[in-house]
Amino acid sequence: MKVLAILYDGGEAAVQESRLLGTVENKLGLKEWLESQGHEFIGRSRIMLFKDQCSSTLYKEGPNSDFQKHIVDAEVLITTPFHPGYLTRDLIAKAKNLKICITAGVGSDHIDLNAAVDRRIQVLEVSGSNVVSVAEHVVMSILLLVRNFVPAHEMIERGDWQVSDIARNAFDLEGKVVGTIGAGRIGYRVLQRLVPFDCKELIYYDYAPLPEAAAKAVNARRVEDLKDFVSQCDVVTVNCPLHEGTRGLVNAELLKHFKKGAWLVNTARGAICDKDAVAAALADGTLSGYSGDVWNVQPAPKDHIWRTMKNPLGGGNGMVPHYSGTTLDAQIRYANGVKSILDNYFKGKEQEAQNIIIGLGRYETKAYGQR
Ligand code: NAD
Question: How big is the chain by its Cα radius of gyration, in Å?
Answer without folding.
Answer: 21
